[in-house]
Write a structure and sequence with these properties.
The protein has 242 residues and is mainly α. Helix content is 79%, strand content 0%. It is globular. Pfam families: TPR_19.
Length: 242
């Protein structure tokens, strides 16, 4: 088997991922990055592996390379916008969204704009995006998940939870919705339920900073500092590295 063959690389990546060997899959795709870039689907898989491993810098560098190869490709744009938003570069996120919207109309771009408002603390603007889109796309899954995030920011945990529970009936493995569900349980004082969900999420993505931080908060609530402190240390170390 020649690993320069994209089909072979893709097959071996799938084998690694089925065995929960995400680091081996990442290393494989990294070693053959020049070939991987010629296949957008495979390249996006490497981006997503970087993101799930907490390697946002590597993800951003690869996305910027891909942007030159595939201009205005939504799968690239949406991931770049998310990284820009999370790192406080809302100006770059806004410019990228507006540039792509000139060529394409897609609800995902509008949701990305709403998330930009949300992450900047502009809750009224974020809610306005939800209201306008809900009229056109009342059953859109991503929009409903975004709506739950807005409601959480408005301290409407019970209302958000109803939406999330309904979403998880359709997609029980949806990571972000499960994290939002844990958030609502924590807000409502159901720390045991939140802890169980967060421990499951942490087992799936041990590098996810928000999961680690909230789980540490709950451990601290129970005065279980031996478990809380290592989580907080790794979150802080990642911030310093970033």
């Amino acid at each position: 088997m020649h690993l320069s063959d994209l089909r072979a690389i893709s097959m071996l990546t799938n084998v690694y991922l089925k065995q929960d060997k995400s680091r081996e899959a990442t290393y494989l795709l990294e070693r053959h990055e020049s070939a991987v870039i010629s296949d957008l689907k495979l390249a996006i898989r490497l981006v997503d592996l970087y993101l799930s491993n907490g390697q946002k810098f590597e993800a951003e560098m690869l996305l910027e390379k891909l942007e030159h190869e595939y201009p205005n490709e939504l799968d690239i744009t949406l991931r770049l916008v998310s990284i820009y938003n999370q790192s406080g570069r809302s100006g770059q996120a806004r410019l990228l969204i507006e540039r792509v919207k000139n060529d394409k109309s897609d609800i995902r771009l509008d949701i990305a704009r709403g998330l930009m408002f949300l992450q900047n603390g502009d809750i009224p603007q974020a809610y306005d995006v939800v209201e306008k889109l809900s009229e056109q796309f009342p059953d859109n899954f991503d929009l409903q998940n975004f709506k739950s995030a807005v409601l959480i920011k408005q301290n409407k945990a019970a209302e958000a939870q109803k939406i999330i529970v309904k979403l998880l009936e359709t997609r029980p493995d949806f990571f972000e919705a499960r994290f939002n569900l844990a958030t609502t349980h924590k807000m409502l004082g159901r720390f045991d339920v939140a802890k169980n969900i967060l421990e499951e999420l942490h087992a799936e993505r041990s590098t996810h900073a928000d999961v680690k931080y909230m789980l540490a908060q709950i451990y601290a609530e129970y005065k279980n500092f031996d478990q809380a402190i290592p989580l907080l240390v790794t979150v802080q170390a990642k911030k310093q590295d970033g």
